[in-house]
Amino acid sequence: MLKRSSDERPSTPSEGAPNLSRIAYERFKEALFERRLQPGAFMSQAELVEIVGSPLGPLREALQVLQAEGLVTIRARAGIEIAKPDLALVRNSYQLRLFLETPAIRHFAEAAPRDRIEAMIAQHREAIGWVDGADLDRDLARRIEEVDLSLHLGAIDALDNPLLRRAFLQTQDYIRLIRLDHHYAYSAAKVRRTMAEHLEIFEACLARDPDAAEAALKTHLTQSIQRAMGL
């Protein structure tokens, strides 16, 4: 299970002007989610400097933040342990998504502009067409992931609450880690199922039916956790 080593929680490196610790933080997550770092592995700081491509000082600052977020554990004389998700993290992450996204999707169904919903529907239908007869390479998978995220983050952003947005994005990192650990990969069938589930949510939003939107979201998240774990 992912644990924080103390009650002190360093803040995420500044999201304003780029700084070296922020760059190291982003490069670490990029290396992790591109599978250049393996969940559960122990790494020395020197090895991380080589993989991440950041100087040691900024990397150390970034590691403090990453430890507070549960993505690494800094172990004296043993090195840096890359987080490996367990069943508790899977359960807790999806439970938190429900808490965050349920009021968000209800609000979205009630208040989102109709033309915005229709544009998102068109984008999802286009994404289904991308996978017909195509090789799902890294670039295409990244585009699909962006479309996948657009519904969830769009609903969260409609609440205009930066604290909720930060909590959602941190939870999304856990979801990506769970997928990574279970060797999750997009396939044409998975993309079609995911987009179809999203379209059901959008149709409920177009109908201004928050109850139906919530029900469709819960069904989607239940299916998502099963796909993430390879079930």
Automatic annotation (TrEMBL):
In this chain, the stretch annotated as Disordered covers 1-20
Which GO MF terms are attached to this record?
A: DNA binding; DNA-binding transcription factor activity
> Which keywords appear in this protein's UniProt record, sorted alphabetically?
DNA-binding, Transcription, Transcription regulation
Supply the name of the protein: HTH gntR-type domain-containing protein
Q: Does the keyword Ligase apply?
A: no
Q: What is the lineage of its organism?
A: Bacteria, Pseudomonadati, Pseudomonadota, Alphaproteobacteria, Rhodospirillales
Pfam families membership: FCD (PF07729), GntR (PF00392)
The answer to whether UniProt assigns keyword Glycoprotein to this entry is no
Query: In which residue ranges is the amino acid composition biased (Basic and acidic residues)?
Result: 1-10
Q: Which residues form the HTH gntR-type domain?
A: 18-85
